[in-house]
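Both lines are given unchanged directly below:

***
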Amino acid sequence: MVEITTALVKELRTATNAGVLDCKNALQETGGNMQEAVRILREKGLAVADKKAGREAKEGLIASYIHFGGRIGVLLELNCESDFVARTEIFQALAHDLAMQVAAQHPLYVQPADVPPDVLESEKDIYRKQAAESGKPAPVIERIVEGKLKSYYEDTCLLLQPFIRDTDVTIEQLIKNHIAELGENIVVRRFVRYELGS
């Protein structure tokens, strides 16, 4: 059994930003295994983030990002629960990263629920026609349509896109990680992307 020293607790706290007691408990639970303790704390943090997701977020900031040469510009509203969190470097860096994501990946909507019903129906019709031309039976066609719709959402909805700085993480997961770290709900309210000449 590994002794849970103050130095070990401090190392875990630095790695996870979790509280001292949470770090000590996680290390005791894992017999001093640092990687397992980090995993436990991350899982707890994400569980807390899910609980906070329903809370109202009316503070925050408007982030701007101008792409090299001034050809693309983005304004993005990112909300949190308090102006204290809105002023932190972590929150401001997240807002900047999200604005940069919008500039680079050109999402059209924040989340799938924001896609207008007529646009959704039009996309489904296109996918059905493409699948029908292959001569597949109706149930298979509907599965193909659902699969293509999932890809459409991943391309056009900001929250479902892979983060450009770490493609193993979606924007939704990135935001949840920040909710766990900052202890407040965080919401992308809206964004607008300008491109020179279009």
The first strand starts at residue 59 and ends at 66. The chain is about 55% helix and 15% strand. The helical segments are 6-16, 20-29, 34-52, 83-86, 89-105, 117-132, 138-156, 171-182. Residues 34-52 form the longest helix (19 residues).
